[in-house]
Design a protein that fits this description.
Strand order of the largest sheet of chain A: 3-2-4-1-5-6-7
Number of strands of chain A: 7
Number of domains of chain A: 1
Largest sheet of chain A: 7 strands, parallel
Bound molecules: guanosine-5'-triphosphate, magnesium ion, zinc ion
Number of helices of chain A: 8
Strand content of chain A: 15-25%
Helix content of chain A: 25-40%
Shape of chain A: globular
CATH architecture of chain A: 3-Layer(aba) Sandwich
Structural class of chain A: alpha/beta
CATH superfamily of chain A: P-loop containing nucleotide triphosphate hydrolases
Radius of gyration of chain A: 16 Å
Largest interface: A-B, 36 and 36 residues
Oligomer: homodimer
Chain lengths: 211, 211
Amino acid sequence: RDILGKNNRSAKHNRFHFEEAGITALNLVSSPGSGKTTLLEATLKTIKHQQHCYVIEGDQQTTHDADRIAATGCEVVQINTGKGCHLDAEMIHRALHQLNPQPHALVFIENVGNLVCPAMFDLGEKARVAIISVTEGDDKPLKYPDMFESSQLCIINKIDLLPYVNFSVARAKAFAHQVNPKIEFIELSATSGQGMDEWLAWLNNLVNASH
Amino acid sequence: RDILGKNNRSAKHNRFHFEEAGITALNLVSSPGSGKTTLLEATLKTIKHQQHCYVIEGDQQTTHDADRIAATGCEVVQINTGKGCHLDAEMIHRALHQLNPQPHALVFIENVGNLVCPAMFDLGEKARVAIISVTEGDDKPLKYPDMFESSQLCIINKIDLLPYVNFSVARAKAFAHQVNPKIEFIELSATSGQGMDEWLAWLNNLVNASH
Ligand SMILES: Nc1nc2c(ncn2[C@@H]2O[C@H](COP(=O)(O)OP(=O)(O)OP(=O)(O)O)[C@@H](O)[C@H]2O)c(=O)[nH]1
Ligand SMILES: Nc1nc2c(ncn2[C@@H]2O[C@H](COP(=O)(O)OP(=O)(O)OP(=O)(O)O)[C@@H](O)[C@H]2O)c(=O)[nH]1
Ligand SMILES: [Mg+2]
Ligand SMILES: [Mg+2]
Ligand SMILES: [Zn+2]
Ligand SMILES: [Zn+2]
């Protein structure tokens, strides 16, 4: 089936748009409820005065996540996929023309909560960030390998809950490295703020690399 | 596309197999890491002497979950879906002919961790049980409605962690009822054992209804 072929052509087109305008696009992927929106809220509140940001939200239904992002003052577009299990490059292309991001902006794409299907769909992003929560178990990188294989960064979120769960950070990292030796890690808590400095520094490096 | 049509025919065939032999089949669905395998381990250890059980495990990769189930002494088959994001009725049909469950058995099917795609694929089960963890946020029933609409029971798991997260049980239930007014709820902790009695009683009723 040529679905992936067509998607890759559309992703290339998006990437051309982004690079032409010096825009850094990120694709945030995770299981449902790992903390993508919470991390975005905390990030936007901190950097909104130094960096022009936009958000594209993907969910089966509701505008819950877009409403939370709008409340930070950030421009956001909500895509509802209905029965669809992932965002694709064409949806992003349409959203981009709605948002009309300024040159040198930072565009966050929050994908549908799903560790499987979004792995196959390039959106034209500069980097893909997989988020796992310490409450989900440390075996996810091996059980859902495609997503970790295709991500540059793995955020281990909700580390404030580590004392209450049997999650081994070392094991999760070893499993992720088995699938993708180049993947980087950041441990953080989107609610307590621990590790946010490291994440903001990583973002800063990525944005500077785009100019 | 006739994928769903073909799957429904295969599901009907499975259901015929099950009803013919008085077998109760359950389809457990959730996000990755909500606690499906942990719940099965706790359940099997408690009922293995009164009820003949079998498990069919679904994951993209690894036999981690089947190994955990086998360690309880229960017969289990692992299905690896590769790039596939859900179990389908044909996969279950093949697994059934491998397991050859005895009449009046209880067959648990643990689906791939994914709140989207498995909702569309009937496996021939008697009941579908959606599990949400209090660590995922209480908005999931509205954001991923198809899965809750097609489930008879919603287990709210990891209630031992409620003191550490901002999850409202009442809100989650109200959202699930908005999508499916008939859905039932059980609050439990698969690790502390709280609520397990209610779950075992629910299972017992289901099995007795099959005879
Ligand atoms: N304790 C703790 N809770 C967190 C953290 N990050 C997020 N949460 C909670 O986790 C739940 C889900 O967070 P969201 O940000 O909505 O997760 P999401 O990945 O955007 O969810 P979807 O968009 O539905 O896939 C909420 O109850 C958050 O408050 C964290 O670092 N620590
Ligand atoms: N605190 C607490 N942790 C739990 C509970 N149930 C499961 N866990 C933990 O949650 C993590 C994931 O549990 P699993 O049973 O592997 O989840 P799963 O739904 O089978 O995961 P997948 O098969 O990968 O989708 C593990 O670290 C478990 O120990 C619970 O009731 N309370
Ligand atoms: Mg979100
Ligand atoms: Mg499991
Ligand atoms: Zn899918
Ligand atoms: Zn048959």
